[in-house]
Structure formats: C-alpha cells, structure tokens
Amino acid sequence: MTTYILRRLLVMIPVLFTISVILFTMIQFAPGDAFTGQLDPNVDARYYEEMRQRFGLDKSPVEQYFLWAGNFVKGELGISFRHKIPVSEMISGRIGNTFFLAVCALILTYVLAIPLGIYSAQHPYGKVDYTLTGAAFVGLSMPSFFAGILLIYLFAFKVRWFPFSGTVTAGAGYEGIALWLDKLHHVVLPALTLAIINIASYMRYTRASVLEAKQQDYVRTAFAKGVPAPLVLRRHVLRNALLPLVTLFGLDLGLLFSGAVITETIFSWPGLGQLLFEAVVNRDYPILMATTMLISVCVLVGNLVADILYGVVDPRIRYD
Amino acid sequence: MKRKSFLIAMIFVLSLSAFLAACGQQADHSSGESAGEPVPGGTVTLSMFSAPKGVFNPIFYEDQYDWYAMDYAFDDLWAYDDKLQLNVPILAEKWEFSDDGKVLTIHLRKNAKWHDGEPITADDLIFTWETIADPDYSGPRYYMVEMIKGAQEKHEGKAKTISGLTKVDDHTVKVEFEHAQANALDNLWDHPIPKHVYEGVPVKEMPNHEATKKNPIGSGPFKFKEIKPNEYVVLEKNPDYYVEGKPYLDQIIWKVISQDVAIAALQNGEIDFLSNISPAEFETIEAMEHIEIKETQYFGYQYLGFKVNNPKLKDKKLRQAITYGINRQALVDGLLKGHGSVLNQHMPKASWAYNEKLEDAYPYDPDKAKQLLEEAGYKDTNGDGFVEDPKGKPFSLRLDYPTGDEIREKSAPIIAEDLKKIGLKVEVAKPREFAAHADAVEKDKVEMWLMGWSLTPDPDPSGIWLSTDPWNYPHWKNKKSDQLIRDAVRSPEAIRDQNKRKEIYAEWTELVSEEAPYVFLYSQNLIEAWNKRVQGVTFDWRGAIEHYKVTDWWIPKDQQ
Amino acid sequence: MSSSAEVILNQPEQGPDLKPDSKGKKGKSPLQLALRRFVRNRMAVAGIFILLAVTLLSVCAPLIAKHNPYTSDLYNTDARPDGNHWLGTDDTGRDAFSRLLYGGRISLLIGLMTMMFTVLIGGTLGAIAGYYGKWVDMIIMRATDVLLTLPTLLMFLFLASILEKTSLWVLIIALALTSWATTARIVRGQFLSLREREYVLSARAIGCSDFRIIFRHMIPNALGPIIVNATLLMAVMISVESALSFLGFGVPEPTPTWGNMLNGARNIRVLSQQPWLWLPPGMMIVITVLAINFIGDGLRDAFDTRSSRR
Predict the structure, then answer these.
(1) pTM of this prediction?
(2) Number of H helices, E strands in chain A
(3) Cβ-proximal residues to B14 (8 Å cutoff; 6+ apart), any chain
(4) Region of residue B200 (phi > 0: left; psi between -120 and 50: alpha; otherwise: beta)
(5) A150 touches chain B (CB under 8 A)
(6) Of B239, B195, B194, B233, the residue nearest B221 (C-alpha)
(7) Whole-angstrom Cα distance, residue A13 to residue A23?
(8) CB–CB of C268 and B263 under 8 A?
(9) ipTM, two decimals
(10) B254/chain A closest Cα distance in angstroms
(11) Using alpha carbons only, what angle is made at residue A31 by residues A25 and A33, rounded to the nearest 5 degrees?
C-alpha cells in the first residue's frame, strides 16, 4: 500500500505538468487574448499593443509557456493581465470563502441526507419514503441556479430571514463571535443551494445501500442470534452501508471548489468558481493556470484519498 | 475666502440649473421632491453587478466597477453641466486659454484638502500628469496626457519631465499643448492623485501600493472607510470637504449584488439605488410606490456594421437599402419596450452636436429598400424570393453577433427576418462569446456584424472613424470624413466657436449617413431607480449615480 | 456529482440459472428473466410510458403546435396565456407552448446523445483499465484525473473556437468529453473487483480471449451500476444544459430547449409573476428525469437475481 501511495504521489508531477500543457494549449486556441475584448474607443489601440508586449503575449506560445512554468515552479504565480494585480492576491482573497462554503455545504449534505436516507430505508415504500424520493428527484433535476433563485425568493425576499448576498453584512463592522454568527447567517442559503443536488443523490445512495445491507445474510444471522434491532442497525448495517459515502467525500471535495460558479454568481459570493469563470471569458491565463493548478492538486489528492479508502473498504481490491 | 468662493460656486450652479430648467430638456433631470430642508445623517446603499478589482487609483483603474467605488472619493478639476458643456468648477476654481488656444492656465481652489488633511496643490496636478507620461506607467490613460507638449518625449524616455507643464504658484498651473484643439479640455486628464502619498514610489509598483488597495487618499466629498475585497466598499463623509455643510449623508455603501436578485433587494430596502436596469423591469419597478425610477438616453448605441472593403458590400445603395429594410422602431418598441430610441448618427440626442436633421433619416420603408436594390442591380431573376447580385449569381450575406447582451442576441434573427422581407438572404451565424466575436471582427472574418459603442460627452469621433484608426472596423476610408473630423477639432473657427464645430459635425454625420458604413440600430435608455427616502437626487444625461451632485443627497430624519 | 458509491453497491453476478420456472419448463435465458422482472415492476413500466409520451409529444410537435416557435412578434411580448397562446408568449413574442414542445426535442436529444457517448467512451476505457490493471489502469486513471480538473468552461470555449461556433453538437461533444471520466471510474471499480471472481479466473484458465471475457462475462455483471449511471447521466445532462444557458454557453438563440426556457426564472419578476413561462419546462424536466430514473431502477432490479423486494 505504501508503495502504491508513493507511486501515486510521484505520478502527480507528470500529471500536473500534462494538465498545464493541455490547459495552455487550449488557451492558445481560444480566439482572442486578454486584450481583445476590451474595446474602449477612447483608449489608443497602441496601449493594448504595448501591454501585449509587456506581458509577453507577442512571444511564441512555447516561449510563453516556459516563462510561465519557470515562474510557477519558483512560486511566482504571475500577474493578472486584465487587472494587473498579482494572481496570488486574487486567489487568496477568495479561497477562504470557497473553502468555507464548500465545508458548510458538505456538513449540510451529511446532516440532512444520511438520517433521511436511513429513515427511508427503515420504512421503505411508505408515504414518507415516496415523498422523500420524489423530493430527491425534484432536487436532482433542478439546476442549481433555479434552486438558488427560489431560495432567495422565498427566504430572503418573501420572509426576510436571510440576506440576499455577500459573506457578511456590509458596513456593520462585526468582530469575534458576532462576525462568525454573521458569516453563518450569510452562508446558509448558498450552502443549501450548492448542497441540494448532493443531498438528493446521497439520500438515494444511503437508502439503497442500507436497504441492500439489510438483506445481507449477516444481518439475518444477527437477528437470529437475538441481537436487538437498534444494535443490528448500528453495528452491522450502518457500518457497511455508509462506507461508500466516505469515498465520495474524497472525490467531491475537489469538484466542489470549481463547480460553484453559478451559486457564487447568484449570491455574489466571491469564490474561486467565479474567478475561474471570469478568467476563461477574459483569457486571463495567469489566473487560469494558477487556479486550475490549485484545483488539480485538490482533485488529485481527493482521488488518491478516495482510492485508498476504497481499497480499505473492499479488501478484495488489490492494487498491484 | 472660503465662504466667498463657496457662494460664487453655489450661485453659479443655481443659476445654471434655473437656466436649464427654464429651457426644458428631453432627458429627465429633475431633483427629487424635497420634503423639507436637507438634514445631515443617514446611509445610502448603492449596488453594482460585479465586484471592483480593488485598484482604487484614478490613473490606474481599468474596471468600471473600481470607478464606481471611488467616484465619490476622487474629485475632478471640472465637470460637465446639464448641457454637456465642460464648465462646472470642482477642484479648479477657474481656468482660461491663451488667445492661440495652446496654453491653458488652471487656478486650483485654495481650500481643497486631501482626505489626510494635506492641501491639494499644483504639485499634485503636475505629479499626476508626469506619472501618466512615465515610461513605466501601465495604465490606459496616456492618451489623456499625450497632447501636452513634451509628454511624448517623457513617455519615450527621452526627457525626465514634461516640458509643457509650468507651476506658476502653489495653486496655479500652466499647461502648454502641442496643438490647439477644440476638445483639449475634454481630453485632458483631470483627476489628481496625492503627490505626498505616491512620491518616491516607483511607477511600476503604484498599482499595488497600499494607498491604492487598502487606504486610498482622495479628495472627494466621501472618503474610504472600509474595503471588503469583492464584496463591498464603505465610504464615509469627508468632514473637511471644501463645500461647507456638505455632503449631508454620513455613509455611502457600495454593495455587490447579482443582477438577478437586485430588484428584489431594491424592493425590500436592502439597497437604495439601482442602475443599468433592463427595460423589461421598468414597469415592475414603476409600480413600486416607494421607488422612484427615471430614464434617459444612454450614451451609446448598438449598430450593424458592414465590412465596406468586402466586394459584396461595396455598393452604397445596397447598404442604404438594408438600412431602410430594418424596422428599427419595432426593435425599440418590442425588445426595448419603448425604453430606447432609434439613432441615425454617432451622437447621442443629449449632445450639443446632435444633428436634428437626421432625426428621421431612414424610416422603415421596405418598398424603398426594394427599389434601391433594383437600382443597384439586385433583382430576383429566378423567382425564389431572394435577389441575385448584379451579375446574376445567387447572393447572400452573413450576420455575426456575440453573446453577452440578451437584447442584441434577440435582435439578430429579427433583423434577418426583416431583410428576408425585402428579398435579401441573410444567414445568421451562431453567436460567439464576446472576445471571440471581437477577434473575428478585428480579423475581418465577418461580413455584417452586431456590436455597440459607448460615447463620451466630447463628440469627437476620432478613434473609431478616421481612415487610419484600428477601431475603424468597417474599413471605411473617406478623405472628406477625415478632413471634417480633423477640422472640427483643429480648425481655428471650431476652437473659437462651438456652433461652428457643431456645423462641421452636422456635415460629417450627414456624410456618414449617406455612405452608410453602419446601420445605427438603436440606443437603449439608461434606467436608474432609487428609494424615495433619498432626497435631493439629481438625474440628468449621465443618470444619478455618476453625478457630481451626490453632495446634495439627503435623508429625512425619520427615515435614516 | 460522482456515483462511485454505485460501484460498492455490488450487484451480485449472475451464474447459470438453476431455478426451474413455475411452469415446469426449462429455465429461460437471463435476458428473458430480466425482462420479465422488469415488466412486473410497475414504476419502471410507468416510467417507460411517461418517457414514450414525452418523446411522442416532442416528435409530433409540428402537428400539435399552432405557432412557429421561432417567429417573434415584437408587438405581443410577455403575453398572458390565452386561447391563442396557451402558455403565453416570451419576451420576444414567441409562443411559449410551441417552444415547449420543440424544446423537448433538443433536450431529449442532448440527454440521449450525451449519455450514449459518455457510456461508450467511459465504459470502454473503464473496462480496459479495470481489467488490465497496473500501468494501463494508471494511465487511464490519470487521464480521467486530467479531464476532471480541466475547467469545463474552457473546454467549451476551446471546442467552440475550433469548430468556429457554439452549436448543439459542440455542446453534446463537450458534455460527453467532460463526463466520461466518472463513468470510467465506476466501470473500472466494478471491473477491479469482478476480475478476481472465480468464473473470470476459470475463464482465463481455459484460455478465453480477453475480449470475450470482458464483453461476455464481465460487462453483463457490471451492467447494474453502468445502467444506473447512464440513466442518472441522461437526467443530469438535461439539467446541466440549463445551467450552461445561465452562464451563456448553452444552446444559442433562437433554438428553444427546456433548459434555456427555465432560465427565464433567474429573474425574480418572471419567477413570481410569469410562472407559465418556466413552470412547464421545469415540470417537463422533472417528469422526464423521474421517468428515466424509474426505468433505471427497474433495469437494475431486473438484472439483480438476489435482491428481494417487498
């Protein structure tokens, strides 16, 4: 196992390298560059030429790539073409928000999905089960922007329980505990929006998995032995049924970071998703490269964790 | 001394407003209803759709939202009045040109201070211009300084300072221009930055300096109190503002709120102001009793451009026929719900240079369009409903358009339908995302395309319309047009008399209209709305938010 | 969203069917038995009917719809539902009901095509990775890693620029390219465990070709999660298209899809005051997704010999 892990970690380097090359190539193919879309008739076209030169956009793609790579390896993430601000600053300003949102979304997911899924499995095909399953499907088929707008409409507009946007209340100047409460107050709606699809699918998986586990021979044996039901549930059923979800955690962590553009846009939640989206639209490749590298590391590590746990869960799996 | 200049300024401004109110304007520019006398205090929350990038330095910012956030914190030397004349003194008390128009003398107000208490002096002004002309300067404002004599040399590194700048005394500066120009004042950069803060900082590092990011020191009626990057900016009253007693408000907060939910936030009172409202929302907001909504023509327009150098589009009659064949009024009535207007020239209606004669040019006339096509040799010889070209070959044109503006996207198929009715086959290309579209237009990969321009109060069309301009996308090269454009700015008659300048522009707009390198489609209205609790709001051709009279806003005591 | 949990919800594989059926005849083939089980599942059958109905409506759109879904009527925008326009008109005066019907075609097409491409690519690659293991597995899995991290939006832009346009097929290809990775992981996981089963080992011992083993023995047993994944994919793709429209990368004007019609609801005014514009497409999406999922559940249960229901 340790050799496997070490091998995976080593392989990450060429993978990251490949990712960076592919990404860079894709950017070159996208028509236009960071200065094309900026049509200000008052600004001399010469300015954009000067800027292109200054940032090396007139060099060959290969040269540009190695310039970037050389700096990146040294830890210099570069400067945004559009905004002339260091990339590290732009990322650091947002990464905290994304992380906070992702963690809250995950907590919400587990807190809601698992108990509901278990309950469904305990009383299958009953009214509650059908309601929950139906709700799960509605949740699965709802695009996140719709969920977000609906939530805002209901809980921020109709009843003013939650704020419309932002991570904190503007101009209030909270500190300490008050600040954290304010943050939690602001994160509820966006986290819920982000989590809805996951809650729906995790609930389904939990239900199916618990149902499946309940039919296993070892459960029947336990009942035959006279073990009380709650104990059976806890020790045999749940342990086996919930392990799969642990592996999901590893995978989803990476994706949550980058997939939240829509939620971030609607709730004006300044996160990495929005940064990435803007960078794509603006062809701002320093931001694109740095953020994608960051997300890649997260996804790769997440996958590694998932694979390890998977091997632990199912002893029949062998990684040669 | 302080009182006197304040009094003069007030009288000046008041008489101007009275004069304009008497004349009447097309644009709504009334003040909000006053429920009594202004009282100090209160907070107003404004909203913007996208987050400012944090470059709070007037000479370096590039993002419009950065400007919104710092507009109230950085004063200009002068401002435009209701009639687009550059004659409202702000930081500059008065200014005059020499007889040959080449030297401008600026007299700064003596009692204006920076937010940290330092006085605003001629040194700051000179320092600002020198910084912009510096070879290491990375912002886009050089063109607003290059007309100063000696600026070019400094920009190229051949000189250490700009020779055309002379400090007469602490509050007076002489600026010598390379040439006399009618729009010298419009194009001169007029937002000083504090020398005592930035002195000694290498120009390269200024955009990242603490004073730019965290602690901007400005000169305006409000100063920065708190900056939460990407989310909001809190501005507080500048107690030392040179206008005594103003501003009335304690705080102004700029919040980032997405366009989708902004209206609900306005209705709920979470924000007080909303700008750039889409026409579809007008009725809904109008119905809200506690919200005031106003509109004026936006300084800009959408157009359909022709690549004139493409042999397919060389014939003027074809282009004119297309212009007659598009029902532009229907676009305004249907897509903009009437909140816009058909435009026929590169000048907004509010501009003093607007040519009334072109107001009704090219009315929607499909018969005339068909007639013009026939005259040009485009006839339908095979009865398929579409005309063939003069040589008898099948003829079709392609229309390209970008994403990013819903109304413009919707207009493309409608335009194609209109042209189908006059017998022109138009293939509507699938839309590209904006940067890709701009790239395609630049590289001449299109025939007809949709795009827009925004305009400035200075009507000078150079930059887009000169034969040599890179932004002359249609490649329309016309010597007469170039001559007129240059004359309007450089000829001594134009410099002396604005009416003469207007005449030249009239000739120019008519020439453009005749040659039709664009079909000027429409100009959407700028719609802004605010909570009625905010009194004293001035709304004119630039809207309310960008108005320098933010100092007059106030909130009644019981609604603070 | 990943569904590798499905992998772990191991479907017991099918051995030879030893149970004589009630009529005393010899055992039917596994496929026939699966079919029978499927038919007995009421929800699954209901799902099939619903899907058929929806598809029929979309296919027969030209017959049912009174108006052309592309014709704008700039003088009758945002109309309320009436006798002429059953679901009113949108903001350019196009008939919403016709757009709903025609939109179904595109949405269903997107769902179906994307699902097929994804399963094809992902399934094959995942099977190869899981079966051969070691270096092959390593390479393919790293490829999925690369694909999972590349920003989807950039992929869209890249494809759109290469093909010089944003169109339906660009969308489908781009979606498939970005989604096959999860399918591949699922299939690979399945194959990793199935590889050690006795019948596989014995098949290898006999000397069966790899191709035969993969396609004849392993895939039928791995079908369960693959099918569930496929049905989930189809459902999610329809909804993803809507999200892409929100960001400006969906199917462009004036083509209607349920997704970009639902986009009208991003505006709170439309959400609260014009529900007839977004509720019908939203409901169609939910119904279709539900139907597909029931079918998927039914298929999975049908192929599973051991789970007892009720």
Answers:
(1) 0.82
(2) 13, 0
(3) none
(4) left
(5) no
(6) B239
(7) 15
(8) yes
(9) 0.80
(10) 9
(11) 85
Burial class (CB in 10 A: 0-12, 13-18, 19+), C239: buried
Place of tokens 């903001």: C91
Q: Which of A87-91, B34-38, B254-258, C154-158 has the highest mean pLDDT?
A: B254-258
Report the distance separating Cα B195 and Cα B120, nearest Å.
9
Q: How many CB atoms lie within 10 A of CB B378?
A: 23
Structure tokens at A132: 């929950």
Read off the DSSP letter of residue A79.
B
Other CB atoms within a 10 A radius of the CB of residue B497 amount to 12
What are the tokens at C188?
């690979």
Beta pairing class for B172-176 and B518-531: unpaired
Report the distance separating Cα B487 and Cα B469, nearest Å: 17
Of C161, C265, C308, which has the smallest distance from its Cβ to A146's Cβ? Answer: C265
Structure-token pair, residue B312 = 């397919």
Optimal mutation site among A44, A162, A283, interface B, most CBs of chain B within 10 A = A44
Among candidate residues B337, B254, B271, the one with its CA nearest the CA of residue B64:
B254
Q: Is B464 left (phi over 0), alpha (psi -120 to 50) or beta?
A: alpha
- Chain B residues whose CB is inside 8 A of the A54 CB are 138
Rounded-to-integer distance, Cα B200 and Cα B364, Å: 61
Query: pLDDT digit string (tens) for C269-298?
Result: 888 888 888 888 888 888 888 888 788 777
Chains with ≥3 Cβ pairs under 8 A against C?
A, B
By three-state DSSP, how is residue C65 classified?
coil
What stretch of H or E contains C54?
A: helix C42-59
Positive or negative: CA dihedral B240, B122, B61, A79: negative
- B305 CB burial (10 A radius; 0-12, 13-18, 19+): buried
pLDDT given at position B12 = 47
Q: Which letter does DSSP use for residue C162 in this model?
A: H
- Token look-up 């919200």 returns B291
Closest-CA distance of chain C to residue B414, Å: 7
Could you tell me which of A281, A154, A144 has the C-alpha nearest to residue C259? A144
Question: What is the DSSP secondary-structure string of B28-84?
Answer: --PBPPP-SS-----EEEEEESS---S---TTT--SHHHHHHHHTTS--SEEE-TTS
How big, in percent rounded to 5, are the helix, strand and coil portions of chain C? 70, 0, 30
CA distance to partner chain B, nearest, from residue A188 (Å):
17
Q: Cα separation of B221 and B502, whole Å?
A: 35
Q: Which residues of A touch B143 (CB under 8 A)?
A: 42-44, 47
Does B147 lie at the interface with A, CB-CB under 8 angstroms? no
Give the separation between CA A148 and CA A151, rounded to whole angstroms.
5
Average pLDDT over residues A251-260: 62
